[in-house]
Amino acid sequence: xxxxxxxxxxxxxxxxxxxxxxxxxxxxxxxxxxxxxxxxxxxxxxxxxxxxxxxxxxxxxxxxxxxxxxxxxxxxxxxxxxxxxxxxxxxxxxxxxxxxxxxxxxxxxxxxxxxxxxxxxxxxxxxxxxxxxxxxxxxxxxxxxxxxxxxxxxxxxxxxxxxxxxx
Length: 167
Hints:
By secondary structure, this protein is α/β, with parallel strands linked by helices. Helix content is about 45%, strand content about 25%. It has a single domain, classed as Maf protein, CATH 3.90.950.20. It has a five-stranded mixed beta sheet, sandwiched between helices. Strand 1 (about 15-20), helix 2 and strand 2 form a beta-alpha-beta unit. Helix 1 runs parallel beside helix 6 (about 140-160). The chain starts with a helix and ends with a helix.
């Protein structure tokens, strides 16, 4: 069984719907989940918000967050995950978000190629809990995107296995 299959099974068992909000992965996380037959029992929607305008329009990320922190930041991935979780029309949602510098260009001293931020938001009714984590991956653009996708799937599975989520 693959990690994506595990995620679909666990989410279904816990009556939870998943949303993705992706920038540098461009839909790869949603694609991995929806490659699983029957994934519609647990996958609600996926957002590919590559531009800052899309992050604001589709997910409600604020211009202030983008201006103050940049698209590759804790504040922005938290906003992306929360926006995706709010969009789910189901009482229980889990959303994952990702924004990073996949390369080969676009990096800076503060935000080098391979830097990726991940957000996760659990929503039950109106209550939400969010967290973010920063990771650095090496390799070319394809490698960074593949590792970011793998890491996001691992985050989802870990969160689904967390007893506090299921309670």
